[in-house]
């Protein structure tokens, strides 16, 4: 094989490796931002505590590391696609990752802003502040979420270590990152096609049958001597087994 | 990445006022006080027990006590709290009212409060419809199947992201304990019930069903627009004679006033850009009227103007205006009968039984299109327009020295008083009303007969 051919193959192989690395990082980012959203949803509620706030900060820092690393790598991947000859599928896959990354960052940014508002509205500096927390029924089930975040692994965690910014700077940094990225890489994001089907069956899991909200909200109702299982949400207004949410 | 449109957001039929809502926030926070707040109990379910459930009667009693109002007022306030999403019902979760009985409610987490101003985006709708499939997430959002497919198409580039987020959220939920999972799902479901897109709202449906134009076509239209208008833009091309904001000389404004005898060349050129430009410039409209009078086809424009008056006029005069319009333009055998198709005529006449501001909208659009497609082009080729083009002024550009500029600045005048302008308008209107009385062909013919 000629040396040129071999180098082209090497380049393609390297690019594919980078692509898989970015895809894994994107999954990790998705997980972290999703957990972050659930954590922020508990801010200001009865489940709020200094433990929650610390968890939020740590999750945020992790997301920051993933974001900065992933943005650099995706930029390199896409500019490499421009210079060297690439297969159309490779280029399309990279663009798809790019769009997913930007969507995730946008989503994360809106959650960050909400977190900032909520932390401002419900400060936890004194004991008396706990009185104003909203009684939402959530107690303290966030340990599971924290463990989930801790399990996230990114390939470059060991290599680069920089201090994570505080909330305001983080928001400003992400905003500038978004605008910069959108200007530097001309990707027609409407040309990216979905790989998932429209009716996402991803959530159907045969191992865990008692999933749906109606099942969990069932309440045993005893009436006229015979007990009937009725959903707590629509008492008496439906036939009892198909609660239309 | 989100494709945002610059259109006004007519899909939202309520505008949360942050200032008022912040006060409601404070009240809801007060309800949490362990000593003086609302007393909570527990909600017993088969699988678990969830604390912090409150009964409607307790809430209403607390509100009545705190605000020192009657039970009815307190109940109304409570219903408002439910409608805006501060409190959600645990039974009958689709009905957003506060009942003064033992039905249970719970507080919504501050993340979902309306003060967060979280306008749900398309991707959030997508995520919700995936997360609540068994509850017919579609029904939750009042989507129909066709809308869901269209949403999938519209968000195709983000669909993978949406599915990923939904999956992660679902899996993360499984890691929490049962009670919290139920609560979190309830909270999100309550949020979506409060914030679902308005049912059969025509603007939202149109937004979902909007057809897509090829970018080459829309860019071509944009380029054409820019090419025609760029010489008329005061930022890109110099105003003739001079830009009053820069030279303090108001010749430009006096030359382009409403009722000037001879308009400027630039103005006349603008009239040829589109029919809309011609009509909106009132001087152009006058010119067009002169042309129509020569052609004896002024009834279309007269109807269009009458419809505009109905739209923008006072509510008290609406029914009388509607009647005159009907008698003058729409009734069979009317003196200025307009020629619109039978279906539109039927709809309009039926609508005139109960006249409202926009009853003539369909007929007005039809007449506008008639004029635009036919009369407008004839006008542009007519001698009236060509004469106007020849007569039009082309003022010389001013060339002020700095000393003259300073003098201009010193001699700035406040301009014509608006009252004087208004009086002039009224006089003109009165003159026009008598002069433009409907040409009653029968009267003219009888006059000619009498003369014979």
Mind explaining what this structure looks like?
Chain B: This is Regulator of G protein signaling 9a. The complex is a heterodimer of chains A (245) and B (452). Chain A is 56% helix and 5% strand. Chain A has helices spanning 3-41, 50-83, 88-121, 143-150, 167-184, 213-216; strands at 218-223, 226-231. A two-stranded antiparallel ribbon of chain A has the order 1-2. In chain A, helix 1 packs parallel to helix 3, helix 1 (3-41) packs antiparallel against helix 4 and helix 2 runs antiparallel to helix 3 (88-121). The N and C termini of chain A lie far apart (63 Å). Chain B is mainly alpha-helical and 452 residues long. Among the domains of chain B are: 19-118, Orthogonal Bundle (Arc Repressor Mutant, subunit A), CATH 1.10.10; 119-159; 217-261, no CATH class; 263-391, Regulator of G-protein Signalling 4, domain 2 (Orthogonal Bundle), CATH 1.10.167. In chain B, helix 2 crosses helix 3, helix 16 (299-312) packs antiparallel against helix 17 and helix 16 (299-312) crosses helix 19. The model of chain B is unreliable at 5-14 and 134-138 (pLDDT under 50). The interface between A and B is large, with 79 and 79 residues.
């Amino acid at each position: 094989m000629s040396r040129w051919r071999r180098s082209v193959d090497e380049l393609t192989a390297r690019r594919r490796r980078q692509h898989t690395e970015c895809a894994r990082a994107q999954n990790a980012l998705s997980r972290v931002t999703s957990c972050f959203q659930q954590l922020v949803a508990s801010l200001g509620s009865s489940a709020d505590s200094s433990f929650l706030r610390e968890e939020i900060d740590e999750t945020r820092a992790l997301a920051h590391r993933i974001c900065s690393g992933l943005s650099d790598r995706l930029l390199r991947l896409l500019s490499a696609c421009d210079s060297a000859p690439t297969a159309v599928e490779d280029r399309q896959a990279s663009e798809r990752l790019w769009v997913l990354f930007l969507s995730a960052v946008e989503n994360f940014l809106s959650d960050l802003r909400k977190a900032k508002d909520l932390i401002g509205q419900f400060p936890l500096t004194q004991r008396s502040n706990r009185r104003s927390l909203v009684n939402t029924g959530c107690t303290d089930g966030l340990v599971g979420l924290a463990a989930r975040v801790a399990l996230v692994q990114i390939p470059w965690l060991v290599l680069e270590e920089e201090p994570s910014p505080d909330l305001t700077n983080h928001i400003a940094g992400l905003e500038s990152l978004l605008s910069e990225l959108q200007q530097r890489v001309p990707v027609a994001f409407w040309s990216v096609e979905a790989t998932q089907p429209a009716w996402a069956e991803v959530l159907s899991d045969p191992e865990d049958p008692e999933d749906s909200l109606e099942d969990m909200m069932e309440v045993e109702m005893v009436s006229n001597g015979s007990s009937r299982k009725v959903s707590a949400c629509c008492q008496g207004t439906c036939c009892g087994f198909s609660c239309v949410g | 990445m989100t494709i945002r449109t610059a259109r006004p957001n007519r899909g939202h039929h309520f505008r949360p006022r942050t200032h008022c809502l912040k006060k409601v926030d404070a009240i809801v926070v007060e309800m949490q006080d362990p000593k003086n707040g609302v007393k909570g109990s527990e909600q017993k379910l088969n699988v678990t027990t969830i604390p912090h459930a409150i009964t409607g009667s307790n809430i209403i009693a607390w509100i009545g006590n705190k605000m020192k109002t009657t039970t009815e007022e307190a109940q109304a306030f409570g219903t408002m709290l439910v409608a805006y999403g501060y409190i959600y019902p645990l039974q009958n979760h689709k009905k957003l009212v506060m009942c003064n009985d033992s039905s249970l409610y719970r507080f919504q987490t501050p993340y979902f409060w309306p003060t967060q101003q979280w306008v749900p985006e398309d991707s959030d709708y997508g995520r919700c419809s995936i997360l609540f499939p068994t509850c017919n997430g579609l029904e939750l959002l009042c989507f129909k199947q066709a809308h869901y497919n269209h949403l999938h198409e519209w968000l195709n580039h983000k669909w993978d992201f949406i599915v990923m987020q939904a999956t992660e959220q679902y899996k993360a939920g499984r890691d929490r304990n049962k009670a919290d999972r139920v609560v979190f799902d309830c909270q999100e479901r309550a949020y979506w019930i409060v914030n679902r897109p308005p049912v059969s709202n025509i603007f939202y449906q149109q937004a979902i069903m909007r057809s897509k134009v090829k970018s080459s076509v829309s860019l071509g239209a944009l380029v054409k627009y820019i090419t025609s208008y760029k010489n008329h833009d005061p930022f890109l091309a110099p105003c003739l004679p001079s830009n009053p904001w820069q030279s303090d000389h108001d010749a430009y404004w006096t030359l382009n006033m409403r009722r000037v005898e001879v308009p400027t060349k630039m103005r006349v050129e603008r009239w040829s850009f589109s029919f809309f430009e011609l009509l909106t410039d009132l001087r152009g409209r006058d010119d067009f009227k002169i042309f129509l009078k020569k052609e004896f086809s002024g009834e279309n424009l007269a109807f269009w103007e009458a419809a505009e008056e109905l739209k923008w006029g006072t509510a008290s005069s609406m029914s009388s205006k509607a009647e005159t319009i009907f008698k003058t333009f729409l009734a069979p055998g009317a003196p200025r009968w307009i020629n619109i198709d039978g279906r539109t005529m039927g709809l309009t006449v039926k609508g005139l039984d109960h006249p409202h501001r926009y009853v003539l909208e369909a007929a007005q659009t039809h007449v506008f299109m008639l004029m635009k497609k036919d009369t407008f082009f004839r006008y542009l080729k007519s001698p009236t327009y060509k004469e106007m083009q020849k007569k039009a002024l082309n003022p010389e550009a001013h060339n002020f020295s700095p000393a003259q500029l300073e003098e201009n600045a010193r001699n700035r005048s406040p301009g014509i008083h608006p009252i004087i302008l208004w009086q002039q308008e009224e006089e003109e209107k009165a003159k026009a009303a008598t002069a433009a009385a409907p040409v009653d062909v029968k009267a003219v013919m009888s006059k000619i007969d009498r003369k014979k």
